[in-house]
Amino acid sequence: MTEIKEINKIGWNFDNSYACLPQSLFTIINPIPVRSPELIILNKTLATSLGLNVEALQTNDGVAVFAGNLIPDGALPLAQAYAGHQFGHFTMLGDGRALLLGEQITPHGERFDIQLKGSGRTPYSRGGDGRAVLGPMIREFIISEAMHALGIPTNRSLAVVTTGEHVIRETQQPGAILTRVAASHLRVGTFQYISHWGTFEDLKILADYTLQRHFPEAKTVDDPYLFLLQEVIKRQAMLIAKWQLVGFIHGVMNTDNMTISGETIDYGPCAFMNAYDPATVFSFIDKHGRYAYGNQPNIAAWNLARFAETLLPLLHDNQEQAIKIAQDALSIFPKLYHSDWLSGMGAKLGLFNEEEHDESLIEELLIMMEKYSADYTNTFLALTFDNLEDTDLFGTTEFTNWYELWQSRLDRQQETKTDSHQLMRNSNPAIIPRNHRVEEAIEAAEKDGDYSVMERFLEVLLKPYAHSPKQADYSSLPEPSNRPYRTFCGT
């Protein structure tokens, strides 16, 4: 076995604060080693920010850590327990194919979870094999890094390794492990688990830990647990608004996939909308559209209500009073979300301030986009660069009338049209992870072992507001198909 002093050249600096929580919240367990791991992609920028040695990460020792074959000094691998409402039904869950190695402390003193996804069976695998296949791990790497570049809070992807082993899904597929980086993996489902199976003291310990880790400013407030609820509501309102603004559809907004930190997590059946339609669903398992694009704000509010329920014993000794406190806090979510969404949509249209009829101006545009099946991202790009003929709305009477109203609205601002167009450039991405482009990258990797398609795609995705010539080709739509695009969890 490699000596610890050699492993430490990589720069791992682990702490394990989560392991100090009530033991029912986790199981300490090592990853299951794999046959012949091979590094296929490393996020060098992220690695450097974490205080890691990029060259050392690419050695056999570095790859062995990513594969779960080698545990670095200070790490304490564990699987987290949590519960959750999956499509509205409450159940016991947990990390069925993931392990938290520990928390990397960066040179700047920041703390990030380092998690291996696809590292083998755990006590929470529920009959699964605990492994992951290459395609979904590539999908999560691409989309999570694209989301970060778009300015959307998200977990990050540090590396993907292939395992040299096959995993059985519908067919034999190449196995892979993703190394995921997150502010934490505390979820609404974590609180649901402790609320259902733990004690009041367990709940208080978890809440205090969460406050210390994510909301240290709570030290100065009179009611820290109400503050916790309010801050999680604020973060989720902002997050969901950002999703809507770029046409992102999460696909599986179960309570175990809503983080307390306000980061996007779990990129299983996610996808980006092409033609604007609030009813858009991509996930194969979402048969009734519970998590459709237009439903995401309401589902977020529902999930937050489940979070508030777990905090009731901490909000007040009297349950009726606790419920009233929680309801008052939750009532703010629609206003916060609407404000975040409205200001974001205004920026996409070059608006620096708000006027009474701005929302109707925005809604009229969206109604037209739905009517004519206009591409969401490309319509805003056409408006940004005055390439009006590039949108399916061009030439219609509705659009002509709307465009005149929009121009009059811009004229009423103190800022110039040049200022407005710059705001729009900064608010409307030139590129998103188009579903067919993601599939091209996955297919090249799975069938031919060709990762260059993924690498070229990532290069342009990581600067979405550059509006460079290289990005133009990636804005094209897929060829028409009689089969709707469907995504899967990859489990």
TrEMBL record:
Which residues does the Swiss-Prot or TrEMBL record annotate as the active site?
256 (proton acceptor)
Any Pfam family from its record, for instance, is SelO
Q: Where is this region: Disordered?
A: 470-491
What is the name of the protein in this document? Protein nucleotidyltransferase YdiU
What does it do? Nucleotidyltransferase involved in the post-translational modification of proteins. It can catalyze the addition of adenosine monophosphate (AMP) or uridine monophosphate (UMP) to a protein, resulting in modifications known as AMPylation and UMPylation.
Instruction: Extract the signal peptide range.
Output: none
Keyword Transferase set for record: yes
Can you tell me which family this protein belongs to? Belongs to the SELO family.
Per UniProt, what is one GO molecular function of this protein?
Answer: manganese ion binding
Q: Which cofactor names does the annotation list? A: Mg(2+); Mn(2+)
